[in-house]
Amino acid sequence: MKPKLIIGIVAIVGFTSLLMYNFGESISTYTTFEGAAERSTAHIPGTWDEEKGAEFSMETKRFTFYMKDEDGVSRKVVYPKPKPNNFEEADQLVVIGEMRGDIFYANEMLMKCPSKYNDNDPGRFVNASDS
Amino acid sequence: MLGILGKALISASFVVSLFAMIFYFVAANKEKEKTLRIGNWLFTAKVVFLVAASGILMYLIFRHQFQYYYVFNYTSLDLTPRYLFSAFYGGQEGSFMLWILISGFLGFGLMKWTRPPYKGPVLFFLTLTQVFLLSMLLGWDIFGLKLGASPFRTIAEEMPNAPFLQTNPDFVPADGSGLNDLLKSPWMMIHPPILFLGFAMMTIPYCFAMAALWKQKYNEWVGPALPWTLSANVALLTAIFLGGYWAYVTLSFGGYWAWDPVENASLVPWLIGTAGIHTMIIQRKSAVAQKSSILFAILAYVAVVYETFLTRSGILGSSSVHSFVDLGLYNQLLAFMLVVTLVGLGLFFWRYKELPSPEKEAKVLSREFMTVTGAMLLLILGLVIILGTSSPVLGQLFVEKPTPPEISFYNNWSMPIVMIMAIFTVLGQYLFWKKYDAESLASALINPLLVTSAVTIASIIIGDVRNLYYMTYLFCGYFAIVGNAWVLFRLALQKPKLIGGSLSHIGFGLLLVGILASSAYNEPLVDQRTANYNEAVERGEVTDEQGFTVTQKEEMLELYLDEPVLIDNRYVVTYEGYELDNIVRRGQQNYRIRFEPLDGGKAFYMQPEVYPMLTSSSNENIQWSVDPDVRTGLFSDIYLYVGGSSYVQEQNDRIAENSMMQNVAFQDTLGEGSEVQTIEFNLGQTIDVGKFKIRFVNYSRTDTTQLPPNTTIGVRAEVELIHPASGRIFTVDPLFAVYSEQGQSYIYSPPSFIPDFDLEFQFTQIKPQENSIELTVTGLEEEYEPEWVLIVADEKPFTSVVWAGTFILMAGFSVSIFRHWGRERKKNKE
User: How far apart are CA B161 and CA A126, in angstroms?
Assistant: First the structure.
């Protein structure tokens, strides 16, 4: 084999493994409030616990609400920004942050809406017809 | 009825396409002009059917035929014609239709301009992709196997089990659920069509590459394919720009780029397409890189289809803020992707041995080596982004239920790649026009390097750049600008038609510098107290009630009406109130925030908006949506949106109160707990009460004939209630009357309401000698909250440079289109 070919192969293999390693490091797994206690940054999907409300406090400048994770556990979530657009509309939330005691401090929050290119009325429509 | 016709037309279009494909296949194999012509007729028929079907869909939308699910789902009666028009491609089915329509029209261009032997195979592959896309719209049900989702399906077909349909099968909703408010934007008119124009055009290099492999003519295809690829590239870039700008100025995403899968879906084909452009150009020039040109042309379209699969199959799940609804097209999309990829790469490897290879290896300091390396880097960047976007699939190699990668994954990988690219653009451009050896190249580069260093050092000092990595990055970006500008000036004097490449590379350099400045040096605009607090948070000195260290900074600011606040030691910012505006969106508030620069610059206003999302609000719950205001400056942008306000709060409170009232037995709203105040006025006097001003304008005797017969006096006062924050003025004319009954005199003063503020006015006394009256106002709070607004403001330096870089890139590519298209036209005439 030509030495250039070997260098090429080594470079490609090296690059790919570094890339894959870094990729593996930079993704994390969706977890629950319970699982979040063990990690520094956790992604938790869940739904807004509507009965307990949601409130933006002018004093602390924080948006606080309760979220139910996939195990059905409801915890207080603190988000340091105003209430995002589409908060109520979202049928799923993903909060990204850390658990401290019983409170989850979210640095980021994603809202999964039925679709940005759609809206939720048909969703409501279908649910209503199921009952 | 029309719906059935529409469905039939789409089905006809699909079937005719299949036949067109067969005829094109035969024509391509046998190279028979007659068969090709039949194929063209069939192709034309397909486009005609599809145009007719689109016309019907458009008609149904404009006639508000809500029995059709698509019309019901994406439109409503109150939409203006422009948004009714955009609703055509507001949903997944319609956007597929638009895509095929554009692709169909491009087909006519290919029929006219493509020369044999490529004509037949090119049209065959174009039709093949259209067959797949059309199959997404069929809505056929073959023994339970569902093929496609028709835009013409009715509500009854969509929801067969809905109870309202059981009772009344002919049920037609009175109104549709409407277009999402976020999409009611002028950008919606233009962004999707241009994006699909780009996607459709990216098909063409794929078709040409396949034709080249089929006909075993590996060099000539590059000429005609180049202008198409360049055009696809400009269309995609324009679409990316429009999407980014839209997200930035109206969608409050907080920036122009977020590495969202949908954004990546248009970036990756652009990157790989650009790689293809590089190799095609060098192949035309030096007859090298035949393999890479074909491979990149194939991969660019595979990237389009793969990203379409990711965003439309529902596989991205919760990782994208805006993926489409899953229409059950997973299998069809997967089949489409596999066929495009396997046929493409299969044929490529089938012919691989035959493909020309360079006889001797290129020198490092040659335009061939530089251009091909640049193309490889573009491909690698594209692959890295594909890897990140594919995290829901590929992430499963590492963890269960993978999340998308952190933003830093994209940034960390793309930064070094683009830095190398930046250097290569300069070396490549120098070597492209003249032969150099190491020594002569170095001496030619001395001046550009000196200028680059000077500019970099100046930026570092002025911008207070402390990060060594950023310094290097800046140097690379400036080097691309300066070095390519050097080439451009020399070239412009001799052959101005050939400046496309160097101009594009200047745009690329500007883009790099602008991206770093606007994202890494993005500063929240806050007052001194908040800034101090944030610094303390950064040092880890702030703890909360539970004793945990606070890590979240405060990046918003509360402003009270007419109370100026000093922000960032640079601006005096005053909230001057809001206006209610029902013209664009019902219930919209336009806030007025005044910025006065301390350095003596001209004061300006920022006018962010808040509006209720009508499509998703209900009587119990209003959903507020924000529309930021961006002030674009040469050096920095101010980006500002309203996170809350006393008006919004009041509306929410009122709604909460109303829904509570429905549960509890009705009580007098203005009974207990409401404050009652009496105010005495002289004629013409204005009195400040809480957050209002009340003015006694006039009073006049009323015609007693309209009052009860025993009324002796009747006086109406004209009173204005002024709400300075919103500039609203309400006029009431409460009545003061005296009537007698059985010899007794009674005062009659019925209340006048102002429902907007839950206020009740009574005219309770009149003192004619003093020319004054007494009003009793119920509902005014004695301890009132001043009007406030919560703003989030950012300063983003040099966003203008990002746009400038994008425009120059577009301009550079456009120059190249003219050059290559001009050459092709001449050839066609021969």
Answer: 9
Question: For B118-171, how does the pLDDT look when each residue is reduced to its tens digit (9 = 90+)?
Answer: 999 999 999 999 999 999 999 888 877 888 889 998 888 887 777 777 777 777
Which residue from A29, A94, A122 is facing B402, i.e. has the nearest CB?
A: A29
Put simply, the answer to whether B177 touches A122 (Cβ < 8 Å) is: yes
User: What is the pLDDT confidence band of residue B674, given thresholds at 50, 70 and 90?
Assistant: low
ipTM entry = 0.81
Both A70 and A112 in one domain: the answer is yes
Q: Is the residue at A19 inside a domain?
A: yes
Q: Domain residues of chain B, as ranges?
A: 1-154+172-184, 186-405, 529-651+788-797, 676-778
Per-residue pLDDT at B252: 65
The full DSSP string for B417-477 is HHHHHHHHHHHHHHHHHS---HHHHHHHHHHHHHHHHHHHHHHHHHHT---HHHHHHHHHH
A7 and A53 in a single domain? The answer is no
Question: How far is Cα B261 from Cα B267, in angstroms, rounded to an integer?
Answer: 10
| Whether A9 and A46 share a structural domain | no
Same domain, A22 and A65: no
Q: Assess if residue A109 is contained within a domain.
A: yes
- Residue B329 CA, distance from chain mean position: 25
Q: Evaluate whether residue A126 is within a structural domain.
A: no
Question: What residues of chain A lie within 8 A of the CB of B159, using their CB?
Answer: 125-126, 129
- Comparing C-alpha atoms, which of B629, B559, B596, B635 is closest to residue B797? B635
Name which of A27, A86, A115 is nearest B323 (Cβ-Cβ).
A115
A113 contacts in chain B (CB < 8 Å)? 321
Q: Give the pLDDT confidence of A19-66 residue by residue, as tens digits.
A: 988 888 888 888 888 888 877 788 888 888 888 878 887 777 788 899
Q: Are residues A109 and A49 in the same domain?
A: yes
CATH assignment of the domain containing A83: 2.40.50.140
Q: Which residue range is the domain that position A20 belongs to? A: 1-29
Contact call for residues B101 and B50 (beta carbons, < 8 A): yes
Are residue A79 and residue A99 in the same domain, yes or no? yes
Nearest beta carbon to residue A26 from set B409, B546, B553: B409
Disruptive mutation site among B552, B611, B652 for chain A (greatest number of A CBs within 10 Å): B552
Q: Which residue has the higher pLDDT, B819 or A101?
A: B819
**Would residue B548 be called left, alpha or beta, if left means φ above 0 and alpha means ψ between -120 and 50 degrees?**
beta
Taking the model in full, what pTM does it have? Answer: 0.88
Q: How many domains does chain A have?
A: 2
Q: Looking at the structure, do residues A16 and A61 belong to the same domain, yes or no?
A: no
From B370's Cα to the closest Cα of chain A, the distance in A is 17
Helix axes B33-62, B119-135, angle to 10 degrees: 30
**Could you tell me if B712 lies within 8 Å of chain A, comparing CB atoms?**
no
> Do residues A70 and A99 both lie within one domain?
yes
Chosen from B318, B360, B651 to mutate, greatest number of chain A CBs within 10 A = B318
